[in-house]
């Protein structure tokens, strides 16, 4: 060990002498703070030589001197151990720290966040625009087969690999939640549970409400009532491939489409989005309630009713509140 350190400093001394400096000055520069005040990510290509790496570091203002970096790396025996990939360097990283990061091979981990309730088409469109991923997704997976979540990846991973992981994750979660489902549910397959979960996902983003919304749908299914949920009408119009930027009309509610639950009884023929874990759990563990109706409460949540007359009154209250807000905006 001592001999290795001696040889290391000997090379440093010889290199420093060639550049007219002292070993102390050269080593100080190698271990001192770097010039970049920000966290910086750069990509080291495969097969890059020490010279190529040092020039890349200099171009990104990560090191003060190419020669000092090379003088520090060569005697350490790490010149052949610099690895390829995307690396993240902390603010003011020294040349020595940069060398260690590049030889440890701990590449920078990126992430994509897929929100609950996105359709498969929306997810594919988003992933195809992530510049740090490679390849192109040409085929949109079936609705409800992708689990919305945060997925970590490294620079150069493929878009299809993210999609495959989402598919595998959804398969696992659906299998687990279905295995642990409540008894006496008015549907018989895990696929139907995913359909119901997608309706819940599109109706509410309030975690405390998911099981209540599920209870309304469960109660309606048990009573052979139409579900009458607006998101299914929107899906009937768009098939999940665009945003509906207008309000639904009476004609929309009467549209004869398998997904329109104002016209059709029971669950739609397939999911209308990709539900998250919380909605999947709500679908198989609904609250036990006497609710058959719900409407927005004007604060981002919903209010629930047992009878149609109660529901009508709450709809009237919501309209009054909504109109009041519109008047306030006009006056501002």
Radius of gyration: 30 Å
**Main pleated-sheet profile:** 2 strands, antiparallel
Strand order of the largest sheet: 1-2
Q: What is the N-to-C succession of helices and strands?
A: HHEHHEHEHEHHHHHHEEH
Overall geometric form: elongated
Report low-confidence residues grouped into runs of 5 or more: none
Per DSSP, what share of the residues sits in E-state strands of 2 or more residues? 5-15%
What is the mean pLDDT? 90
- The total count of strands amounts to 6
Structural class: mainly alpha
Distance between the termini: 76 Å
Number of helical runs? 13
Number of domains: 3
**How would you name the oligomeric state of the polypeptide chains in this document?**
single chain
Quick rundown:
The protein is mainly α. It has three domains: 99 residues, Dna Ligase, domain 1, CATH 3.30.1490; 61 residues, no CATH class; 141 residues, no CATH class. 47% of the residues lie in helices and 8% in strands.
Describe the structure.
By secondary structure, the protein is mostly helical. It folds into three domains: 6-104, Endolytic murein transglycosylase (Dna Ligase, domain 1, 2-Layer Sandwich), CATH 3.30.1490.480; 109-169, no CATH class; 184-324, no CATH class. The protein has helices spanning 2-18, 23-31, 50-59, 66-73, 95-104, 120-127, 159-179, 190-203, 210-222, 230-238, 250-253, 277-284, 308-331, and strands spanning 40-44, 85-89, 109-113, 150-154, 293-296, 302-305. The strands form three sheets. It has a two-stranded antiparallel sheet. The protein is elongated, with a radius of gyration of 30 Å. The N and C termini lie far apart (76 Å). The mean pLDDT is 90.
